[in-house]
Amino acid sequence: MIPGRLSVAGFDVRVWRGGEGPPLLWLHGFEQHPGDAPYLQRVARARAVTAPEHPGFGDSRGFEKLTDIQDLALYYREVLASLGPGPVDVVGHCLGGMIAAELAILAPDRVGRLVLIAPYGLWRDETPLPDPFVLPPPRLAAAKWADPAWADRETSAYDPAAGDSPAEFRTINLTAASKFLWPLPDRGLARRLPYLHTPTLVIHGETDGLVSASYDAAWAAASPRIRTARIAGAGHLPMVEAEDALFALIDPFLGAAP
Questions:
Q1: Which of 107, 165, 214, 252 has an alpha carbon 20 to 30 Å from 113's alpha carbon atom?
Q2: What are the sequence ranges of the domains in the chain?
Q3: Residue 199: Cβ within 10 Å count
Q4: Average confidence (pLDDT) over 65-93
Q5: How many CB atoms neighbour CB 18 within 10 A?
Q6: Which fold has domain 2-255?
Q7: Beta bridge partners of 36
Q8: Is 133 exposed, middle or buried (0-12, 13-18, 19+ CB in 10 A)?
Q9: pLDDT per residue over 88-123, tens digit each?
Q10: b/e string for 173-187 if b means 16 or more Cβ within 10 A?
Q11: 145: nearest Cα among 116, 122, 172, 118
């Protein structure tokens, strides 16, 4: 995956691209873009992957033009249009999953198939989600990982060689993420999900302490086009802790006929 810049609709963001084949858009989670992650390299074996950094994160501009999640979905509609005339498969993790769902509702002609990994966007009073913006680092790590030993394998777009400050990098990202995620209970996605007609696969890690796997029932009940799956031995980042198991689900789904 090669880093570069993406200029669409007046936004200037960092983007990682790689691979050949049908186009695929990958949207990252609330903490950071993963940079040249092994799992993105794996997708790029058979796909032309575009993995942009969200506006306002890291070294990506245009955040001031966004007021809500719909604005962000409209931006990504233009990104999809820049990738070609046909529908594009979209994979979203965490915050990126919520954005991807909104995008598919807003622009069903632009999204082919949709994979949502540990997606935010729904709320169940009986299983409230912890607020990731106030969790101290040890509790956040415990919530993210089934096995904390995997934390060292999480990749990041953070670049100390470019003068990035760890504290500033994290503050910039979380400030941007909070605009779209906070408050957690209701961002309106539940009201819009009945309009989701894109074939969708929602995947949870069974021990995810940020977005409980029990939310798969709410997703499945929202639309007949949504299938769900769980991955044992994985937390919030199954693409890191259980890469093979994740792709055993993703590959056949994206390769299936609509």
A1: 214
A2: 2-255
A3: 20
A4: 95
A5: 18
A6: Rossmann fold (3.40.50)
A7: none
A8: middle
A9: 999 999 999 999 999 999 999 999 999 999 999 999
A10: bbebbeebbeebeeb
A11: 118
